[in-house]
Amino acid sequence: MYVRALCNEIASYAGTVKEPVYTVFFGGGTPSVLTPDLLKKIMDTVVTHYDLIPGAEISLECNPGTAERATLAAYRSIGINRLSIGLQSACDSELKILGRIHDNKQFKSVYYEARDVGFDNINIDIMSAIPGQTIESYENTLTEIVNHDPEHISAYSLIIEEGTKFHDLYGDDNSVIYTHKVNDLSSHSNTRCDIPSLPDEDTERDMYHMTKEILSSAGYHRYEISNYAKDGYECRHNSVYWTGGKYLGFGLGASSYYGDNRYKNTSDLGEYLEQKGKRYDLIYIDESSAMEESMYLGLRMMKGVSITDWRKRFKRDIWDVYGKELRKLITDGLIVTDNDRIRLTDRGIDVSNIVFSNFLLD
User: 183 — phi, psi (to 5°)?
Assistant: First the structure.
């Protein structure tokens, strides 16, 4: 029933989209739990109703505990050409802390089987600041991943979010660069003493800098705060978000940004099925909100924000809107202007959340 509603939603918005489609992303959870036949049905709906360009980037998020050689081969046969594998850590004890259903051996099996069946564009997700994680264990994860030679690596820091069991254990005293939500601690009871303490702030910072050093020396360039790629393998889909591009999201709880509005699907499965996949909420984005977002998303990219593109988009000069803030951040050594671009310095990347807060308009 769910896939039927999803396909109905995909088809129902085809008439509003005239532009060609450059990326398709199966994500937002664990889409690899669906059978290849169901994924094919979804992919066929996209191909039927939209102008999917030749060579489009078609990604699938994959949990190593839910894939095997036959399913990986089936993914390739239906057109998926980029795989994003959620390893998180090469240390099995850390995976248990996170409640992951796979171990490192399963990950390696899935990774090399994916290579065997033809995947030549693979991302691996890893995580730092895991409870009990040490500099040594994190360095081992980085080194092992580099030795696998994927095309792309996403390196996130754990943040403790409300509504998770980690939040019950650790509270709010955790500050990191990027959010990666943890939902499961099923193998542990809900008491603080059952799991190790979080790495301290200095250790977390050392992990953060180690990521850049090891991946850079291995030939991965950092193109976004938490993302590293070999030349030509930057994630096209995620780059749409960071540069303010338009996108349609389909499925339970999905978000879209099209025209001047955001659309947010219901997260209630019963409502979604009853509406046969129709969108549930419309959120108008005013100019101030759009300008704020363009800065804190655009500055996540290492190339920064284009002054010319910003003027074309908003019909205003960026210095007229943010001149005071930009000049202060330049004086503080947190951003620089580089020809037509404004970008973070290395120091600015370290305190990016503080930098971004300067662009909130009253």
Answer: -110, -15
